[in-house]
Specification:
Blueprint (H helix, E strand, L loop, with lengths): L2 H7 L1 H4 L7 H14 L1 H6 L1 H28 L1 H4 L2
Length: 78
């Protein structure tokens, strides 16, 4: 496992404010309402697997980009 993945998988232990943002909870509720509770529950495992994979990808790519800005001359220019 890469160090960035270790960071991702342990964020809840490293942050006092770890949890879903209001926008995330709202989007999840809207998805459930759009699909209907029964259909959502039928496919919840697949939906959540996709959401977790997307979140991990966004975290890793965002973190890598932020680090690249911090380590580049252009990113540190004021």
């Amino acid at each position: 496992m890469k160090n960035i993945e270790k960071l991702y998988y342990n964020m809840e232990n490293l942050s006092d404010n770890w949890g879903d943002m209001p926008e995330t909870r709202k989007a999840n509720k809207e998805l459930e309402n759009a699909l209907g509770r029964k259909l959502y529950m039928e496919h919840e495992e697949k939906i959540l697997a996709y959401m977790v994979a997307s979140e991990k990808q966004g975290f890793i790519r965002g973190f890598q980009y932020a680090v690249s800005l911090l380590t580049s001359k252009e990113g540190c220019a004021v």
